Amino acid sequence: MGCKFKFEKYGDKASLLKEIETQVSANGGTFTGDENDGEFYGDAPVEYKVKYKFDEFDHLNLVVIKKPFYLTCSVIEKAIEKYLNDRKFENLTILLEESEMEVSKLSYDIGNGKEEYEWEITSPEEVDCECEAPRIFRDSKYGTTVKIKLVDLGRIIQGKTESCLACTNTPLGRICTTVLCFYRRTCEQKAMLEVFYPGNIEAEFKKAMDECAKVALVPAMALIIAGQYQAAIPVFLAAFQKCLVAKGYQEATKVSVNIYMDESDCTSWRKI
Question: How far is CA 138 from CA 200, 201, 254, in A?
Answer without folding.
Answer: 10, 10, 17
